[in-house]
Amino acid sequence: MTASPGLASVLASLSAGKVYDLAQTLQTGMACSPNHPGFRMALQRRHGDQNRADGTSSASELIITGGHVGTHIDALSHFSDAGCLHGGVDAAAAQQTGRFTKHGAETIPPFLRRGVLLDVAATAGVEVLAPGVSVDTATLQTTAAAAGVEVRAGDIVLVRTGWSRHFADPQRFLGIHDGVPGITTDAAAWLADTGVVAVGGDTTSVEQISAGQGHSLLPVHRLLLVERGIYLIEMLDLEKLAADNIAEFLFVAIPLKILGGTGSPLRPLAVTAQ
């Protein structure tokens, strides 16, 4: 059996392209929101602990992590407003079994869509936006125009602030005292009105965090997850994509099917034609 001409063409195109890994490396001690349990890994079995008769041995680990640690995607069950999830689903009723029976992480679809990078930092002429800077609709539109791309319905839009350069410094990355740059509610509404499927960023929450505010209020989460049913992808590594001035690409990501979960670890890829 041979591949169809159409599939062969697709495979040839992808083979000639370049793949960018957009995920942060999962490691013990990495930056994590204080609202979530952090990532921990320990070797449960080491080579030599138990040798087989033929001289071989195996090693394995124990991993403990929250669903919103490192590069991850928020399920629609992650946020509620006035006791309701997206679509008016009663949050208390949906979580009674110890896992969500509506909008769980297992309902997040695989993504194979057009991706757009809006490199706000580059358009502003800086490597990293200052703490707490707001990224509004006009800023996103200016950034898109500068890159020569149009945000369309069905897109995955990734917003680069440059903030992931601080990822190795957890306190600075979290920005609890000084804030974190990110999109505002009007920018989120513009993206939602355009018809995007998901919005991603290189910070802890994608949205603007003012100095001293922390995650006490997250209006963009409410607007996108609850009101509009649009997924949020957080803590992306967009630096290599930005360094090569890539603004349009094939976005590929497959969330884990965690039954009733509120989020999933993610390893997104950006694939370019050449």
TrEMBL record:
Single GO term (MF): arylformamidase activity
Q: Which Pfam families match?
A: Cyclase
- Read off the InterPro entries from this record: KFase/CYL (IPR007325), KFase_sf (IPR037175)
SUPFAM superfamilies in alphabetical order = Putative cyclase
GO BP, one example? L-tryptophan catabolic process to kynurenine
PANTHER family, alphabetized: CYCLASE, PTHR34861
This chain's protein is named Kynurenine formamidase
The organism encoding this protein is: Micromonospora parathelypteridis
User: Species lineage, top-down?
Assistant: Bacteria, Bacillati, Actinomycetota, Actinomycetes, Micromonosporales
